[in-house]
Amino acid sequence: MASQMTTSEKRTNKILGIIAWIFVGIGVLVLGWFYLFASSHVNTNNAQVRQYITPVSSKVSGFIQEVRFEENQFVHKGDTLVVIDNREFANQVQMAEATLESTAESVDSYQSAVSVKSSDLQTIQANIEASKIEVWRTEQEYQRFKNLVEEEAATIQQFENVEAKFKQAQAHLKALQNQYTTAKINAAAEQTKVAPVRSQVAQQKAHLNNTKLILSYTYVVAPYEGWVGVKNIQVGQLIKEGQALVQVVSKEKWVVANFKETQLGEIDTTKEIEIHADAFPNIVFKGKVQSLSPAAGSEFSLIKPDNATGNFVKIEQRFPVKIVLEESTDLDKLRTGMSVTVSAQKID
C-alpha cells in the first residue's frame, strides 16, 4: 500500500512538473511577445472617443406646439425636431405682404400717371408742330396781302383779316409752347414720386423676407446627421429666444489619444493605428493619425502651470493626437467619451 502511494505521488509530481513547465513556457512566450510588441509599438490608454455635441437652440420665443423626436433617436440633417406656435409670426408675414401689395399698387399708379403725362407731352408736341405750320402759312399770307395793299391791289379790311389770323396763329403757338413747358414740369414731378415709392417697395420686400425668415425659425431642425440626447422639453412649454432645446451628437467620430511628449517622435504616422475600446475588448478598430495638437494639453487649461514660481518639478507633458477612424460595421458601437487603448507602430 505504501509503495502504491509512492508511485501515485511520483506520477502526480511528474504531472504537476510538466504543467508548471508549460506555464513557465507560456509566460516566457508572453513576455517575449510583449517585449517584441512594446519595442515596435507606442501605446497609451489615455485616449477617448470624441464626437461633436451641438446644442440646438431656439431663435424665437413662443410655446412649443410639437416635439418630433425621442431620446437617443437618430436624425438626419434638416429633420424637424421642434415646432413652435407660429400664428403670431404668420400674421406678421400677412401684414408685411399686405403693406407691400399696397405700396406696389402706388408705384403702378404713379407710373401710370407718368405715362399719361408723357403721352400728353407727345400730343402737345404734335400740336406745336401743326401750329408752327399754321404760323408759317398765315405769315406767308400776311406778307402777300401786305404787298398787295402797298400796290393797292387789296383792301385794308382784307389785310387786317389776314393779319389777325397770323397773330392768332402766333398766339396759339405760344400758348401750346407754354402748355408743353408746364406739362413737362408736371411729368418730371410725377416721375420724382416714383423713385421714393420704389425705394419703399424694396424696403418692404426686405421686411417681408425677414418676417418669412423669422417664421421659418419656428421649425427647429437638426444641424447634421447624428443622435439627439436627453429630452427635457414638452408640448405647451414656453421657451425663450436662445434657449437650448436639445443636444445633437454627430455621426462623425474620432479618437483623441494623449501621448507623452517622449512618444511623439516614435509614432509612424503613415501606418495604421490599432484601437481597443474598453467596452468592446474583442473588437479591433483601425485608424490613422490626422493631426497633432499645436500645444500640450496643459496649455489649453484655464489656469496654466507657472514653472517660474516655487520649486520646479518636471512633469512629462502629453500632446493630444487626433486619429480618424476607418469605416467598419462596428463603428456605430463607439460613443463619445468611451475610453480606448491606442497602439501605434514605431518608426522603423
Keywords:
348 residues; 4 helices; 12 strands
Q: What is the overall shape?
A: rod-shaped
Radius of gyration: 48 Å
SSE series: HEEEEHHEEEEHEEEE
Largest sheet: 6 strands, antiparallel, barrel
The secondary structure category is alpha+beta
Stretches where pLDDT falls below 50 for ≥5 residues?
none
Distance between the termini: 65 Å
* Helix share bin: 40-55%
How many helices?
4
Coiled coil: 159-193
Protein name: HlyD family secretion protein
Keywords: Coiled coil, Membrane, Transmembrane, Transmembrane helix
Domain CusB-like beta-barrel: 254-296
Q: How does this structure look, described?
A:
The protein has 348 residues and is α+β, with helices and mostly antiparallel strands. It has four helices and twelve strands. A hairpin with a 2-residue loop joins strand 9 (273-277) and strand 10 (280-292). Helix 2 (87-150) packs antiparallel against helix 3. The two termini are 65 Å apart. It is found in: Membrane. Keywords: Coiled coil, Membrane, Transmembrane, Transmembrane helix.
Briefly summarize what is shown.
The chain is of the alpha+beta class and 348 residues long. It has helices at 2-40, 87-150, 156-216, 261-264, and strands at 41-57, 62-67, 74-75, 80-84, 219-221, 226-228, 238-239, 244-260, 273-277, 280-292, 318-325, 339-345.
